[in-house]
Amino acid sequence: MTITRRGFLGALGIAGAASTLPGNAQAWQSKAPPDPFGCLVDLTRCVGCRKCEQACNEVNELPEPAVKFDDLTVLDAKRRPDQDAFTVINRYYTGRIDDRDKLVPTYVKVQCMHCQDPACVSACITGALTKKENGAVHYDVDKCIGCRYCMAACPFEIPAYEYDRPIWPRVRKCTFCFERISKEGGKPGCASICPVEAITFGKRSELLRLAKNRIESDPGKYVDHVYGEHEVGGTSWLYISGVDFRKVGFQELPDRPMPQTTETIQSALFSYLWSPLALFGVLGAVMGVTSRKHDKEDGHDA
């Protein structure tokens, strides 16, 4: 028995095709809450004061930062949220100038986007991450086993891991101030402190209406796009901007929720066990051929 590379790949293709026959795969269903809370960030209003960073630090009882919150020199370098900072402000210069021919910066707040159909929740094998009705992607440390699949799955590269904590390390990210908005009826810390009202907290449907009204009322000021309305199926954090989102650190992402692809493939591959059995059969045949070939070579050498 001999098998060529083309034959092997063909067999794998047949095995995959068998798994996608009608009736094998279950249709994917969105698990997004109908109208969760969210936040609208207006980048034309943000002044980069870092008050939101300070509020986040206090509400979540995070360690004191190496650079004080009133020191704006930290904006000279791009930053990402990490295990000790759930939100950060970055500054971008996109070429815009004011009446005095000075460059006008755009400030961007970065944190977990709390997706409607989160890839991290789909990837979590223990249920440590869940999407709540109030919009928060909630983390349960007692269920986490530290596999870090959520970190690999997140399209925004947000979850951070406590590598420096050898005993019971945690995955860390913005909590959406879950306790405040679910039990106290309050706002997230960052939204409650913003001095220029660049962050608006409310129901997602209302925030979308507000965002589109601002864009329609002043089309010369805003880009005609609400970031987060459709990206990866929609997010609880929404943004409007006066400059191209690509110029200020936002990724171009598909509208399709990430779990719609991954869970559909998983369902197709493992439906009725046909695909794993076919795959293992092909791999077994290859191992058999390889074993015989090695036995012949060993006999020849002897």
What do these coordinates show?
Its cofactor is [4Fe-4S] cluster. [4Fe-4S] cluster 3 binds at residues 112, 115, 120, 154. Residues 1-27 form the signal peptide. It is a single chain. The chain is an alpha+beta fold and 302 residues long. The chain has a single domain (37-262), classed as Alpha-Beta Plaits (2-Layer Sandwich), CATH 3.30.70.20. Helix content is 33%, strand content 14%. The chain has nine helices and nine strands. The chain has helices at residues 5-19, 51-59, 119-123, 149-153, 178-182, 189-193, 204-217, 258-270, 274-301; strands at residues 37-42, 88-97, 103-110, 129-131, 137-139, 160-161, 171-172, 199-203, 237-240. The protein has a three-stranded mixed β-sheet. Helix 1 runs antiparallel to helix 9. It starts with a helix and ends with a helix.
Give me the secondary-structure topology.
Elements: H1 5-19, E1 37-42, H2 51-59, E2 88-97, E3 103-110, H3 119-123, E4 129-131, E5 137-139, H4 149-153, E6 160-161, E7 171-172, H5 178-182, H6 189-193, E8 199-203, H7 204-217, E9 237-240, H8 258-270, H9 274-301
Parallel strand pairs: 1-9
Antiparallel strand pairs: 1-8, 2-3, 4-5, 6-7
Helix pairs in contact: 1-9
Binding site for [4Fe-4S] cluster 1: 46, 49, 52, 194
Transmembrane segments: 269-289
Binding site for [4Fe-4S] cluster 4: 124, 144, 147, 150
Main attributes of the structure:
two-stranded antiparallel ribbon; membrane; Alpha-Beta Plaits; 9 strands; 9 helices; about 35% helix; metal ion binding; alpha+beta; about 300 residues; globular
